[in-house]
Amino acid sequence: MLQKRFTIIGVILVMMLVLAACGGNGNHPDSSGTAASPSPEAPAASPSASPEASASADADTLTVHTDKGDVVIPAHPKRVAAAYYHGTLLALGIHPVGANKEWWMGSPFLKEQEADIADIGAPVDVEKVTALDPDLIVINDFALENYDQLSKIAPTVYIPYGSTKNVKEEVKQFGDLFGKQAEADQWLADYEHKAQEGRDKIKDVVKPGSTAVILNVRGKVLSVLGNNYGRGGFPIYDALQFKATAPVQEVIDSKEQIKEISLEALPQYADADYIFLCINDDPDQSMASELRKSKIWSNLPAVKNNHVYELDYKTYLYYDPVSISGQIGTIADLVAKGGQ
């Protein structure tokens, strides 16, 4: 993923003009953040400029400067259609009226909050969005081709996919962008509290500095995952503070956050104290079967020591802020109980 930063500059435009005319000095609050994406299957992002937001003369609106031009949005939107990022908006107390159900909804940690959110299609269905009468639309690259149509329905903010390092930066950036700084700070504080609780749960069974690898099986494909590709990555490496081996760290540091490997290369990447295995909900389970039957698998240190934990695909696929926060405790519980 590209790791460009979004810079949010809150400026009261009228005061700037007055102060400039009077030769006075103004205050320029400056805060920054980046927006990540909770994507089940995440392609690499395309380069784009950093959006910026500034207060308008009208206290009821904000002006957002994006790749698609300046967009005036409501300061307190009531009916948001989110072709992406709905989990991040929910974390900040913004409840969308519509979101992409097939691709991005379905996290067990968002079940109640998503219950009354209408499906706007995958890819986004312009007619469904129109029927919701939104006052703000939020999209990323997956709906970019529909930008012109969507922007005729309501102010549309395009936040490029993959422009973040992690969910913490995403929450901070969205808090700044939508005037939810207090909610963002609260989420970050809650996250750190849950992270400490998770570490306390496993401290008696996991030695400090223990290494871990996340393996993903999709059909015939075996992959190593980084810390920002779902499947429990961020809770494992950030919240619970498992360490990555050198080859895994290269995957974490990459834009793609995923590396396909052969079964023969597995010892190079999975020479770790703990293995977290996530098998996609795929009709083809050939690689999963071959993996478990192989001597390569049975000879791995984590397998020998019963330090393998299978992560349910439908539970750990998601990496929006709400899901990540919830996954900390469930992963800690798995580790505390012992692996297989």
UniProtKB/TrEMBL annotation:
Residues 1-20 form the signal peptide. Pfam families: Peripla_BP_2. Keywords: Signal, Transport. Residues 77-339 form the Fe/B12 periplasmic-binding domain. It is found in: Cell envelope. It comes from the Bacteria. GO terms for biological process: iron coordination entity transport. The keyword Signal applies. CDD domains: FeuA. Its main location: other. GO terms for cellular component: outer membrane-bounded periplasmic space. Residues 27-60 are annotated as: Disordered. InterPro entries: ABC_transptr_periplasmic_BD (IPR002491), Bact_iron-sidero_bind (IPR051313). Residues 35-60 have a biased composition (Low complexity). Belongs to the bacterial solute-binding protein 8 family. PANTHER family: IRON III DICITRATE-BINDING PERIPLASMIC PROTEIN (PTHR30532), IRON(3+)-HYDROXAMATE-BINDING PROTEIN FHUD (PTHR30532:SF26). This is Iron-hydroxamate ABC transporter substrate-binding protein. It comes from Paenibacillus protaetiae.
